[in-house]
Design brief:
Number of helices: 24
Bound molecules: thiamine diphosphate, magnesium ion
Shape: globular
Largest sheet: 6 strands, parallel
Distance between the termini: 57 Å
Strand order of the largest sheet: 5-4-6-7-9-8
């Protein structure tokens, strides 16, 4: 066996360059790059190793570890999980800064390779700078925080351990069912330690996604359920996009006379203008999709985790006899709520299900209802997004302006605040991946960093980041990275002077406006933040606009710019789209001195009666 003597860090770098993927017949590096913020614990080991491979595997310097990991995660999501990135940090705060991002990847089932530095395996200099000392467990370090938010966690204390660890890491990162973040905590002395690695470990490997075919019995049972359905309805999740199953979904819907509601993760899996598309489903759903969901007797759930925003906290699907067919690569999801599981890749599963259903079609009365509901919803929705002269437009009116000036190839990126609900209802996604919403963790601060990752995944598409003032303040530093890297973003910043959506939720649950909008906070001076000046200081083009007309002009200018642009607009914190949507379970206090809370509690208890547990 021929070997090559490398440090553990050099072995990691070399191994990553050998991993490939095939997309549309083209062989590409599986890892699009490595995000790095160096410090104690990675600069000497990983830093030296990454420098050595910089021509095959570019290193990108982030400004915040959470932000750079968000960019990596967004890159993987925008690449349909077919490409990914790694992230390396120092030990201590650099590492724990990345824990929230690990949770984002974990919830959203997205691959990212996290390589935090770790304390000395030999423990000789302990306690080192930034070492968290446990009084009771000598094996614990700050990196143990990654365990619950990693699909696979390992700590490398010997150079040869990296061989099975990286092989296992690749299995997890590329497996459609297991997919999620992998954390390999790299002890800093081990990074620098040399070992005679077998050459074969660095052989080029092309990863192609595994397409799991359905089990025959499950397929027959699922087809049987659907054939008997009078009111079938499809819920499409992110799994449709990860499986490249958009065509299979559209063909399935057309052939069998079915209609589709989309989750946040699944939006753009069927074109907005496709006859079978009813738009968003769930708490932030369209009136049309929700009308069908409420009556449906068989819900065909494709590639969805069925989170509470999709199921209306399990109160949306009201038909007493309804069953769910769970078409999912992951058994965990396929069997939720007593679903008839169809464990399979979305594309293959839909194709085989279609074959099993033969010429079966949904009853005409049901499809006619779907068409009526759809027409009614789009009339209603237009009223919310039409142009306005209002001094303080609503989020929906801003969305209308962005939509009117956009192209079908554009990607809109968002994560938290009031915008996700409004975008889910109103955004008209015409092409796959044109809607990039991180709504598994809905992590404030994902937006700009995520937008950067989306742009890196496909520089040919214009990326429009929509972000609230709260999220912008929480994390904006990767805006500077976007300028530095020449990865242009258009950021639309909606300044409603506070946490608008949480203020609305607080009011809806009987609370007083408190600690959300800046005006309702403890303060000596009410902040008047000049976001345009802030963005300009980071190197972006920045402009503050008044009203929808100026916004549309600025958006057109931003399109032709070659640098990131931030457009700031003041918006109304109280307005939101009251049409469509569904109840969401937010626990209201059982006793309170406030009459408003007591009355909200009564409504809450009433709503809970529609919630179905388990069935
Ligand atoms: C990291 C993080 N902290 C807290 C929350 C809870 N949260 C969700 S939305 C929101 C307010 C967002 O404010 P902003 O970005 O201004 O959007 P707006 O609600 O005003 O539309 C908060 C605090 C979260 N989702 N993520
Ligand atoms: Mg706000």
């Amino acid at each position: 066996m021929s070997t090559i003597r490398l440090t553990m860090a050099q072995a990691v770098a070399r191994f990553l360059t050998a991993q490939k993927t095939e997309i549309d017949g083209q062989i590409l590096p599986l890892f699009g790059g490595v995000w790095a913020i160096f410090g104690h614990g990675n600069v000497a080991g990983m830093g030296e190793a990454l420098h050595g491979v910089r021509d095959q595997l570019p290193t990108y310097r982030g400004h915040n570890e959470q932000g750079m990991a968000h960019a990596a995660i967004a890159f993987a999501k925008a690449s349909r999980r077919r490409r990914m990135m790694a992230c390396t940090t120092s030990i201590g705060p650099g590492a724990t800064n990345m824990v929230t991002a690990a949770a984002v990847a974990h919830v959203n089932r997205l691959p990212v390779l996290l390589l935090p530095g770790d304390v000395f395996a030999n423990r000789k200099p302990d306690p080192v700078l930034q070492q968290v000392e446990s009084f009771s467990d000598g094996t614990v370090s700050a990196n143990d925080c990654f365990r619950p938010v990693s699909r696979y966690f390992d700590r490398i204390t010997r150079p040869e351990q990296i061989i099975p660890a990286l092989q296992r890491a690749m299995t997890v990162l590329t497996d459609p069912a297991e997919c999620g973040p992998v954390t390999l905590a790299l002890c800093q002395d081990t990074q620098a330690e040399a070992y005679d690695y077998p050459e074969s470990f660095f052989a080029e490997k092309i990863w192609t996604p595994r397409r799991i075919r359905p089990d025959e019995t499950e397929l027959a049972e699922a087809a049987d359920l659907i054939r008997k359905a009078k009111k079938p309805f499809i819920v499409a999740g992110g799994g449709v996009l990860y499986s490249n199953a958009e065509k299979a979904l559209a063909d399935f819907a057309e052939k069998h006379g079915l209609f589709v509601g989309e989750t946040q993760g699944g939006k753009s899996s069927i074109a907005h203008d496709h006859a079978a598309c009813l738009g968003a489903v769930g708490v932030t759903g369209t009136g049309a999709a929700n009308a069908l969901a409420e009556e449906a007797d068989v819900v065909i759930a494709v590639g969805t985790r069925l989170q509470d925003f999709t199921t209306g906290s399990w109160a949306l699907f009201k038909n007493p006899n309804r069953r769910i067919v769970g078409l999912n690569v992951q058994t965990f999801d396929a069997t939720k709520h007593n679903a008839a599981p169809l464990v399979a890749d979305a594309r293959v599963g839909l194709e085989e299900l279609s074959r099993a259903l033969g010429t079966w079609k949904a009853p005409e009365a049901w499809t006619a209802k779907a068409r009526d509901e759809k027409a009614r919803w789009f009339d209603t929705a237009a009223r919310y997004t039409d142009p306005t002269n209002a001094e303080l437009p609503s989020d929906a009116q801003v969305i209308g302006a962005v939509q009117r000036t956009s192209q079908p190839t554009d990607v809109v990126v968002c994560a938290a605040g009031g915008l996700p609900g409004e975008l889910h209802k109103h955004w008209k996604a015409l092409q796959p991946l044109g809607y990039h919403m991180e709504y598994g963790y809905s992590c404030m601060g994902y937006e700009i960093a995520g937008g950067l990752g989306v742009k890196m995944a496909d520089p040919s598409r214009e990326v429009i980041v929509m972000v609230g003032d709260g999220s912008y303040l929480m994390m904006n530093s990767e805006l500077a990275s976007s300028v530095m890297l020449g990865k242009k973003l258009t950021v639309v910043l909606l300044d409603n002077r506070g946490y608008g959506c949480i203020n609305r939720l607080q009011r809806a649950t009987g609370g007083e406006s408190f600690n959300n909008l800046l005006q309702h906070t403890n303060h000596v001076t009410l902040p008047d933040i000049d976001f345009a000046a802030h963005a300009a200081s980071l190197g972006a083009q920045a402009i503050k606009v008044k009203g929808i007309g100026e916004l549309e002009d600025a958006l057109k200018q931003a399109r032709s710019a070659d640098r990131s642009t931030v457009i700031v607009i003041d918006t109304d914190p109280l307005a939101s789209t009251d049409a469509g949507g569904h109840w969401w379970d937010v626990a209201v206090p059982e006793v309170s001195v406030r009459d408003q809370v007591n009355s909200a509690r009564k409504n809450y208890e009433n709503a809970l009666t529609a919630q179905r547990v388990g069935d």
